[in-house]
């Protein structure tokens, strides 16, 4: 039986990981450290019996040291982060506080307990990061690899780049056993409705405009969160300490193509289930019209990166990872999850 500290485990990716780990490792204990800010909710992990929620701040180094020490924790899986680019433009301070200072607090605590007090104890600190640290690609540029130069363009990506460098430094300077994964755009259950896919799904249900930045042709690689959880497990169990692994979904698409897929799936669902028109009477699909009529172009976001793409050949070769979820099926499953879990998204949307 192992004990894990999962930071941000009541959020989107962290919450999915808690469910995933509980299914794969039912004898392990999970301490979830989460400050329950707007994008996290205790209900996300409420039915996971082996997960204990501790409401607290990752910047509280004393609390983290206490948890590592008293719960005999040997693994930290670090999800906790401010992650919405738009919010980083209007309020960057929170991103520096959480993503940089918070990560440093965790590293200090891990060093104090695992290295200074318990020298030689096997441990692992896995840090979840983003492909946005690499900057923006041109249409014909090769995909991001682990050796791509960091060129972050938003306060969010700059804060994540800084945290990546701190994790690397604690390995090379102090010998902390760390791994880092840089993932592409995630989607799936429990995603807070400010991100593109759940936002547009719910707007389609409520007949609200779908705000499309610029020309809608910014390109992202889409990764189902379940595949991401599989990759994180592979990093933790097979990754080499000190190494970084890029994790992609193999679905590089323009935002407009994603939005069209969302609209088509909403229309299909209403055509197949007549009860949806009663539940969501404001949806165009409830009146036999296309959800695509809600598309609305808005002024582009400042510093909007044009294209991200992931070269995950290192993860394939060293971890045996490859994405399994087809994007079309993944979107359909995601829509069905939101339709089946209306109570969850209504609760988090009103916070």
UniProtKB/TrEMBL annotation:
GO molecular function, one term: dTDP-glucose 4,6-dehydratase activity
Matches recorded under SUPFAM superfamilies: NAD(P)-binding Rossmann-fold domains
Family matches, as InterPro entries: dTDP_Gluc_deHydtase, NAD(P)-bd_dom, NAD(P)-bd_dom_sf
Domain NAD(P)-binding: 5-334
Catalytic activity, EC: 4.2.1.46
Database matches in Pfam families: GDP_Man_Dehyd
Keywords: Lyase, NAD
Top-level enzyme category: lyase
Cofactor field: NAD(+)
Highest taxon listed in the record's lineage: Bacteria
Reactions catalysed according to its record: dTDP-alpha-D-glucose = dTDP-4-dehydro-6-deoxy-alpha-D-glucose + H2O
Matches recorded under Gene3D superfamilies: NAD(P)-binding Rossmann-like Domain (3.40.50.720), UDP-galactose 4-epimerase, domain 1 (3.90.25.10)
Recorded family membership: Belongs to the NAD(P)-dependent epimerase/dehydratase family. dTDP-glucose dehydratase subfamily.
Protein name, as recorded: dTDP-glucose 4,6-dehydratase
Organism name: Aurantiacibacter sediminis
The gene coding this protein: rfbB
């Amino acid at each position: 039986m192992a004990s894990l500290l999962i930071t941000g485990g009541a959020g989107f990716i962290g919450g999915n990981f808690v469910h995933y780990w509980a299914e794969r490792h039912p004898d392990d204990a999970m301490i979830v450290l989460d400050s329950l800010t707007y994008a996290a909710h205790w209900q996300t992990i409420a039915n996971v019996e082996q997960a204990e929620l501790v409401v607290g701040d990752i910047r509280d180094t004393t609390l983290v040291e206490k948890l590592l020490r008293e719960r005999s924790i040997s693994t930290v899986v670090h999800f906790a982060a401010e992650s919405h680019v738009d919010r980083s433009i209007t309020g960057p301070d929170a991103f520096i506080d959480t993503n940089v200072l918070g990560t440093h607090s965790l590293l200090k605590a891990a060093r104090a307990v695992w290295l200074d007090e318990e020298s030689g104890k096997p441990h692992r600190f896995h840090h979840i990061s983003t492909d946005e640290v690499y900057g923006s690609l041109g249409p014909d540029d090769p995909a991001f690899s682990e050796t791509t130069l960091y060129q972050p363009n938003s306060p969010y990506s700059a804060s994540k780049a800084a945290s990546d460098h701190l994790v690397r430094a604690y390995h090379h300077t102090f010998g902390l056993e760390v791994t880092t994964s840089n993932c592409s755009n995630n989607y799936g259950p429990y995603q807070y409705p400010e991100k593109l896919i759940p936002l547009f799904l719910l707007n389609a249900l409520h007949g609200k405009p779908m705000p499309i930045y610029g020309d809608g042709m910014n390109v992202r690689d889409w990764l189902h969160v379940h595949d991401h959880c599989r990759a994180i497990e592979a990093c933790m169990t097979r990754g080499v300490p000190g190494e970084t692994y890029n994790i992609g979904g193999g679905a590089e698409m323009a935002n407009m193509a994603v939005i069209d897929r969302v609209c088509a799936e909403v229309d299909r669902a209403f055509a197949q289930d007549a009860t949806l028109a009663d539940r969501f009477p404001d949806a165009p699909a409830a009146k036999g019209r296309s959800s695509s009529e809600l598309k609305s172009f808005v002024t582009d976001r400042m510093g909007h990166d044009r294209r991200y793409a992931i070269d995950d050949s290192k993860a394939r070769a060293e971890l045996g990872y490859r994405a399994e979820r087809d994007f079309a099926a993944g979107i359909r499953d995601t829509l069905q999850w939101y339709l089946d879990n209306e109570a969850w998204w209504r609760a988090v949307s009103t916070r």
